[in-house]
Amino acid sequence: MARRKKIYEGKAKVLYEGPEPGTFVQYFKDDATAFNAEKKAIIEGKGVLNNRLSEFFMTGLTAIGVPTHFIKRLNMREQLIRQVEIIPLEVVVRNVAAGSISKRLGIAEGTPLPRPIIEFYYKDDDLGDPIVSEEHILAFGWATHQDLDDMVALAVRVNDFMSGLLLGVGIKLVDFKIEIGRLWDNDFMRLVVADEISPDSCRLWDIKTGNKLDKDVFRQDLGDLADAYTEVAKRLGVMPTNAAQMTKPTLIN
Ligand code: TMP
Ligand code: ASP
User: Fold this and answer.
1) 99 lines ligand 2 (CB under 6 A)
2) 183 CA distance to ligand 1 middle (Å)
3) Spatial CB neighbours of 64, under 8 Å, sequence gap ≥ 6
4) What gap in Å lies between CA 46 and CA 149, rounded to an integer?
5) Residues 95, 109: contact at Cβ < 8 Å?
């Protein structure tokens, strides 16, 4: 059998050619990286969890009318997605100060922000994904005025949806990152949520304890990352059993 064609390999995922034109298969790896891949590890079961969680969030977004690239989950680690043209920007929405905004502006981690703040980062690993303004985005042609309006509208809807969903299971959505792609339908283009939405790309804090349930557990060596993601999946009813265990071979006596 011919091997399927690899389109792109990133730090946490691989994209393969899909079964039909205009589709890709997105494979979730167990690789975890932080600080632009300065820190690396394999976290057994992470890919399985992120595949399921991203499916869950994207399906919910589709259900409320927010367009995404997601078509369907294929198996434990793969999902079928629509091929989109990724806009080279990371769109970050923040509800509570943490991470780089705390550092950059000297705001104590955990300070609620006066309103959700949307930021754009230029996707370029060599430059360490620098923060950019709308001026840069327009001047360098990474997106148009219309795109920016649509991206902000999408980001706000994702924030409201995710915040509500997570609040219902006792989790605070502190911040998150999305990527947005252009989906072409003949001459008609619309923007859709692409890439993934998972605890790799969000900050999630337990409302009662303040415990971190996201990739900061790995970035800051706070414990077992797969356990944290499993907790999120369990609370959302996405995965009743321990995914890390499910991927390990089981000894049958
Ligand atoms: P930051 O505080 O480091 O700027 O991160 C903001 C949010 O974006 C946080 O939820 C983590 C997410 N993020 C990514 O998904 N990928 C990245 O490369 C970075 C730097 C952050
Ligand atoms: N995703 C980025 C990296 O691999 C940064 C991060 O999430 O901290 O290195």
Assistant:
1) no
2) 24
3) 157, 161
4) 34
5) no
Cβ-contact 89, 167 below 8 angstroms: no
Domains of the chain: 6-83+226-251 (3.30.200.20), 85-206 (3.30.470.20)
Q: How much is the pTM? A: 0.94
Find out whether the beta carbon of 100 lies less than 6 Å from any atom of ligand 2.
Answer: no
Let me know: does 90 contact 75? Beta carbons within 8 Å.
no
Atom number, ligand 1, closest to the C-alpha of residue 36: 18
- How would you write the pLDDT of the chain (253 residues) with one tens digit per residue? 567 899 999 999 999 999 999 999 999 999 999 999 999 999 999 999 999 999 999 999 999 999 999 999 999 999 999 999 999 999 999 999 999 999 999 999 999 999 999 999 999 999 999 999 999 999 999 999 999 999 999 999 999 999 999 999 999 999 999 999 999 988 999 999 999 999 999 999 999 999 999 999 999 999 999 999 999 999 999 975 555 555 555 566 5
Query: Residues 198, 150, 64, 51: what is their CA dihedral angle, to the nearest 10 degrees?
Result: -20
Query: How far, in Å, are 7, 41, 55, 108, 133 from residue 130 at the CA level?
Result: 25, 24, 29, 21, 10
CB 205 within 8 A of CB 212: yes
DSSP, collapsed to helix, strand or coil, labels residue 200 as: coil
Residue 8 is encoded by which pair of tokens?
A: 């792109």
Q: Which ligand is nearest to the CA of 98?
A: 1
Distance of CA 132 to the CA centre of its chain: 20
**Ligand 1 centroid to residue 252 C-alpha, Å:** 42
